[in-house]
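Here is one such protein, fold included:

. . .
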Amino acid sequence: MKNSRLKKKALCFYLIIFTLTVLTAQEKAKQHTVSAGFSTNTGKGIESNYLYIDGLYRFKMQYMNATAGLMVTKSNISFLAGVAYTPLNTDKHEVGIVSVYNTDIVYKVYSEHTLNFVTEYTFRLIRNFIFNAQLGYSHKWQRVPIPNYKAVVTSNPGLIFRIYSEKFLTSHFHIGIGISSYDRFRYSLWFAPSFLFNFYYTAHNSKLPNGMFMGLETVIRYTDFATISGYIDNFVMRFVWGMKL
């Protein structure tokens, strides 16, 4: 019951903050980004999904941004909502707090909910280099319905982290590399990190619409990484297309 109330309060919080962020932004500071992704994996490990389809929307202004997303597979559906506040925000440095709520529903089996609170630092050189680091607290709970009986609810606190950098090769092409304890729609318990290797193209002063981007994101997922029994659990490729409006 306690976790159910926490979930409802968290969802209401994100909906309110998301709405206020969009409504109170000044016109000159607004930026909308929409993207769609199609992912596939090796089918290795405990995750049986081979195909993922997802959509993301991000609203950004100078000191705040909000994100919402949805992912669908043959066996589950996942939703996320996130808000960030960056009071220290200059051309080169950005420091703030980020909170993300994710719910993952496995059809007719169980639901999993994750609430994250993270401090974040970003260093950037415009159209040259970006470095981002995150560290924070994660609270996860699972609800397993049992026919004709009370649902079983378990919870797990943990840490969350991410280190990621991007390098612009030209004004159009850039690459990214990093390590993270989570994926966009996947939040594992400590310590099962993902290694990220990404390649993007962004239209800029070309025949394509300005702001259009496309890319290939690859993820190598490890399990039990901090032990001698650690192994590669899965390999994921995500093809993404989007627009900055």
Observations:
- The first strand starts at residue 31 and ends at 41.
- The longest helix spans residues 2-24.
- The chain has a mean pLDDT of 84.
